[in-house]
């Protein structure tokens, strides 16, 4: 009986193995390469673009990465470090671009394509995609945050939203009128996005001299850092803080904004269509303006997010993949993706895609583009994950932030970068 | 398991035939030993080797031999000690509570007369659920937005609709421990049930005839006779609890200082790509588990042979 079973198992294993081999060789022999594009999860935009850009010479198929940006980075980096050739094209979150490029995971983009991408993209998008003087990924979509507010609340509180507002103003207004200011302050990358914008809005920068590797210059322990800490401290200890502040990500913040106490929200562009089917009454009540100022009178620097598309240096089809990337990041493709996902184009030409004008009011589309022009990308350095992790460790929970946080945070990150501390 | 005829070494002089059988036995197990070494020893040696380097996966050119400096960095870092303390607290609290509840469950499963199968199965269900799934379930349970803990227990003075369980250290630790206890108490109950069924009914009967109360029978007859089973259960669960990871990963991601030792190791190796520091941490984790197992076996004088029913 056991013998029979073992024989069956062996036969099954053989059949499976030969099937796999057959599948591999079929791909290799057909002459039409399959380019595998690892994408971040979305509502179908990237898959649609992949279909559109497939040609007689190659087909582009998509594989979905984990939801969390850091998990996407982990999966891609571990496979690329092992020389996995099954990845041809990948969607990369901007803070990790430099790390991948520096490690040699990304194939060089041809000069002429670099020029074309630079010409069409927003400055913020180009900056975030550049490492060591070269464009290492193709900007695909660019995201930015604006200040969303509830018109009814603002009316009740009597604030003039036509002029630039500061964090102080919205926190005070919400505290006095029983409203909440929803932000992203869980212990994750989204919290660092907020901190980065607060610091940049006060004229500072988290890190400079990035070409020096771990010896880069940190700018947390500065006046700008203290201003940023001041805003977080004030919100965390005010009545305007949502009870779930310390665990809030984009979704929780969106829910707070949609609740009866919702007043202000800083969040990405897709919030505009977030309540369409679930809370149409909230949708009608949404107003929007430029990201709040850290320091009164100084222009705010909204967060920059998005996706750049890179080609793996281990891919067997680099040339085809480059052609595919050119198509995937064309303004039209960016428009199609934006229409389906709410993730806005990385180029102003992409904003001309007709369908977008039907979904978004003209002034909102203009606001997105102005915000992108003014956006402050997170520091482009291969060591961003250490810096970000260090900030998350020292600035979380928000209620623990005070005037000494920037200084402590800076010395902690410095020790982490030099391998003297655990993160 | 084994039924070798060789007898105990040193006591019996082996015959030629026995020696030949031994040699044959060695040859037969050799492939398995080689596979075991490749699978278990190789990664351990690799970890030991890597732990002597400063080595980051994404900057392979900066690989540098640093000797024991990784260990020094770790042992002098407050984060390491804080995470170790967290892990020990989780281990002691969960094992203690599980021992009590698990024993109660074991008694129920042992003595139950009607619907025995159904009740035994329902007690064991949590253990059949994947830890990640149970962690998500408990995260939703304690969630400030849609969990039922805040509404069901609103009558307690310190719980309200705005109680953010994952917003502070101790409430977050509490939630993590609750999920761990819920998940693994059945395992404890199962181990104790095995011990309970080994206690001779005659002894309990004799104690009854002598006029011992239920309480006396429990403390003087049942528990002493179950000592080996209890200690094995404690040993297994303590080592299991010491490597707690999934619940923390799902519920807090280590926020509010709820990290455990294995979570710290995970973050260094997987998230930070710090192969050197991470390997040093995993070596330390391995040594700690070894020490822990040795301590429990020594302290409670667990006779594993007896527990296996060989004694």
TrEMBL record, chain A:
InterPro entries membership: SBP
Key words, A-Z: Signal, Transport
Stretch forming the signal peptide: 1-28
Superkingdom: Bacteria
Family: Belongs to the bacterial solute-binding protein 1 family.
Protein name: ABC transporter substrate-binding protein
TrEMBL record, chain B:
Residues annotated as domain ABC transmembrane type-1: 84-296
Transmembrane segments annotated in the record for this chain: 28-53, 88-109, 121-140, 172-197, 273-297
Keywords tagged on the record: Cell membrane, Membrane, Transmembrane, Transmembrane helix, Transport
UniProt keyword Transport, yes or no: yes
Pfam entry (one): BPD_transp_1
Top-level taxon: Bacteria
Localization annotation: Cell membrane
Database matches in InterPro entries: MetI-like, MetI-like_sf
Main subcellular localisation: membrane
Topological category with respect to the lipid bilayer: Multi-pass membrane protein
Similarity comment: Belongs to the binding-protein-dependent transport system permease family.
Name of protein: Sugar ABC transporter permease
Organism expressing this protein natively: Nocardioides conyzicola
């Amino acid at each position: 009986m056991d013998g029979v079973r073992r024989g069956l198992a062996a036969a099954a294993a053989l059949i499976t193995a030969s099937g796999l081999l057959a599948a591999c060789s079929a791909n290799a022999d057909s002459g039409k390469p399959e380019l595998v594009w690892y994408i971040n999860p979305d509502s179908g935009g990237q898959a649609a673009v992949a279909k559109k850009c497939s040609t007689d010479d190659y087909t582009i198929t998509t594989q979905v990465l984990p939801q969390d940006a850091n998990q996407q980075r982990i999966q891609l980096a571990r496979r690329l470090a092992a020389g996995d050739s099954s990845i041809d094209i990948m969607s990369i979150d901007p803070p990790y671009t430099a790390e991948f490029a520096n490690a040699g995971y990304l194939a060089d983009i041809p000069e002429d394509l670099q020029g074309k991408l630079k010409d069409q993209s927003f400055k913020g998008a180009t900056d975030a995609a550049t490492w060591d003087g070269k464009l290492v990924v193709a900007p695909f979509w660019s995201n930015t945050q604006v200040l969303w507010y509830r018109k009814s609340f603002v009316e009740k509180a009597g604030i003039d939203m036509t002029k630039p507002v500061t964090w102080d103003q919205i926190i005070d207004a919400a505290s006095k009128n029983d409203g909440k200011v929803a932000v992203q302050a869980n212990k994750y990358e989204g919290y660092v996005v907020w901190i980065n914008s607060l610091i940049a809005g006060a004229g500072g920068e988290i890190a400079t001299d990035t070409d020096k590797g771990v010896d880069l210059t940190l700018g947390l322990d500065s006046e700008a850092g203290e201003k940023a800490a001041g805003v977080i401290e004030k919100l965390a200890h005010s009545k305007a803080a949502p009870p779930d502040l310390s665990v809030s990500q984009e979704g929780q913040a969106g829910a707070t904004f949609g609740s009866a106490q919702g007043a202000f929200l800083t969040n990405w562009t897709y919030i505009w269509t977030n309540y369409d089917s679930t809370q149409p009454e909230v949708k009608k009540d949404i107003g929007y303006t430029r990201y709040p100022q850290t320091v009164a009178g100084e222009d705010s620097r909204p967060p920059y997010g998005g996706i750049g598309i890179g080609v793996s240096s281990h891919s067997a089809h680099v040339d085809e993949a480059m052609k595919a990337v050119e198509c995937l990041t064309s303004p039209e493709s960016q428009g199609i993706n934006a229409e389906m996902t709410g993730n806005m184009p990385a180029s102003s030409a992409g904003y001309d895609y007709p369908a977008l004008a039907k979904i978004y009011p003209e002034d909102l589309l203009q606001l997105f583009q102005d915000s992108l022009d003014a956006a402050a990308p997170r520091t482009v350095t291969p060591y961003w994950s250490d810096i970000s992790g260090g900030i998350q460790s020292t600035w979380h929970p928000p209620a623990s932030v005070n005037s000494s946080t920037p200084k402590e945070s800076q010395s902690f990150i410095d020790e982490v970068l030099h391998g003297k501390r655990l993160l | 398991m084994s039924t070798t005829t060789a007898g105990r070494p040193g006591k019996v002089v082996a015959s030629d035939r026995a020696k030949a059988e031994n040699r044959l036995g060695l040859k037969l197990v050799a492939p398995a030993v080689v596979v075991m070494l490749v699978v278990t020893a190789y990664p351990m040696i690799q970890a030991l080797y890597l732990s002597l380097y400063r080595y980051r996966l994404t900057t392979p050119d900066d690989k540098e031999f640093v000797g024991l400096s990784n260990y020094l960095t770790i042992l002098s870092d407050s984060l390491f000690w804080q995470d170790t303390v967290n892990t020990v607290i989780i281990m002691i609290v969960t094992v203690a509570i599980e021992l009590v509840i698990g024993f109660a469950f074991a008694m129920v499963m042992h003595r139950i007369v009607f619907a025995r199968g159904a009740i035994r199965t329902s007690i064991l269900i949590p253990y059949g659920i994947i830890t990640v799934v149970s962690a998500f379930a408990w995260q939703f349970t304690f969630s400030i937005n849609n969990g039922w803990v805040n509404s069901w227990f609103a009558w307690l003075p310190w719980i309200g609709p705005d109680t953010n369980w994952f917003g502070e250290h101790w409430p977050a630790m509490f939630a993590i421990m609750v999920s761990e206890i819920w998940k693994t108490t059945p395992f404890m109950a199962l181990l104790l049930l095995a011990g309970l069924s080994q206690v001779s009914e005659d002894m309990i009967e004799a104690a009854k005839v002598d006029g011992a109360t239920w309480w006396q029978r429990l403390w003087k007859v049942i528990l002493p006779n179950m000592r080996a089973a209890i200690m094995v259960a404690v040993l297994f669960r303590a080592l299991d609890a010491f490597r707690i990871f999934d619940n923390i990963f799902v519920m807090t991601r280590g926020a509010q200082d709820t990290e455990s030792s294995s979570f710290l190791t995970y973050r260094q190796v997987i998230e930070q790509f710090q192969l050197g520091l991470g390997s040093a941490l995993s070596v330390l984790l391995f040594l700690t588990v070894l020490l822990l197992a040795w301590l429990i076996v020594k302290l409670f004088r667990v006779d594993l042979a007896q527990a296996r029913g060989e004694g």
